[in-house]
Amino acid sequence: MKYRWKFLLRFQHVFFFLVFILMTYFTENYFLDSFELIWSIILNVFFNIGIYYLVYYYLVPYFYLSNKYPEFILYALICFLVSSLFRILWEPAVFEMNFTPKGFHVSFLYNIYISQGIVILVASFLGITKDKFLIEQDVIDLGEEKEQLYLDLLKSKLNPHFLLNTLNNMYANSFTHSEKTSDSILQLSKLLQYIIYDSGKDKISLTQEFSSLKALAALYQLKYNDQLDIVFNIEDQDEFDIVEIPPSVFLTLFENALKHSAIGIEENSFIKLSCTIKNSDLFFEIVNSVAQNREYSAETNYKGLGNDAVIHILEKYYSGRFDFISEPQENNQYKMFLKIKIHG
Question: pTM here?
């Protein structure tokens, strides 16, 4: 990206001086023969490169962009007058210009004033637009960095305390021969594989994302002796191996439900998750109980950073092609609904 814009800025300078060479050729070929015309073009190009870069790299940054508009206009005008006067004096002195035809000397003056005015105006315009473009590019870069920070947040959102508790449970079960130990290791390895490898990708398949959800649910079940009311209504569809989504989106929404449902703590708490693909639309839904004791859930609605980050990622990848609803329901329940148009 930066290389392309540097090339474009350099191309602007080169293109302008090519135009300036042609302009000088057509305006001075009336006064000079071919040999002197070539030397006049060379000397004028080198002279005006200095004027051009003086305006472009000094006057614009130090005066115009610092909101010192009167000083900028004054110094630009001085550059115009000095450069024009210099050319008016040295060109006739160096070259044998033919001003015999009537009005040629007036045309010569007009040509000098117009060409020097164009040099200063173009240098000012390109210098101002370059700065504004770079500012806009910085804003774009900052926006991309912000998006990456949101994505990193999703990748690292899995509660480290939960992983630590899982390891403690595995350690406690290791003293007795228990299938829970091997199951815990298996599910934890799946989840860690997802966090370390899959979450670093731009997109992963739905099958991979659901694998992480099921591994997380299985670890919760092992912790509470398979007493949790967690239901996955996910039909086996071939599209799940093909359709890809940004990693951790569904996992974050599932973690929100685990956090706010008080599952394993309060009676009658539950989580029901469903997902299907119909007519190029992906439907993902979670319905869960809401903690009655506020100590288990600091907030019962999902307007926190988790949902904001998910929406931001969805906007990046599916702008205008998704619907996201997260709102409380009757009977102390909460519903999250996500619809994504995966094709189109």
Answer: 0.55
